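Sample entry (115 residues):
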Amino acid sequence: KHCVACHQVTGQGIPAVFPPLDGSPYVTGDNLERMASIMLYGLMGPVHVNGTPYNSAMAPFAAQMTDDELAAVASYIRSSWSNKAGELKPDVFVAMRKKWGSRGPFNISELGEEK
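Predicted structure, serialized as tokens:
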């Protein structure tokens, strides 16, 4: 219910507004801490996904969802549509909450942008 408004049921996002989750290296890549950090704290400013620029905001979900819920959503997204990545466990969210504390949204340059 939190993701579908922007990223759509298909995971394709909204062209030129919200990036796709389907086929996104931010979703399927090995940088699980980056994905968890974005889901927890949100993302502001420009980001390129599969060569397409997006400049919108992703809301933080640290206050709305537990680590178990976030892990379930992340695992679902990582294995849905054309994505074939493995699960993301709750302990990654626990570690990122501890690492980042009560900060605000990230800029993608802080977490590493996919080329």
